[in-house]
Predict the structure.
Amino acid sequence: MSERDGDDPSASPSNTDPAHGGSVTGRCELCEWYAVLDSYPAMVEAYQDHLRDEHPKAWLRA
């Protein structure tokens, strides 16, 4: 499992990524946060944690 900054902040938790062995990828629409995790529930939790910590107003709307 890893987390890194990306160039294309386009979406929240998304689909599986064949380039990462079927892992789930996610990006933040508000910044360059990007993560690759093993499962969709783990990605949702990581994304919600990120929103709550870094973008609290967006997290309240989600």
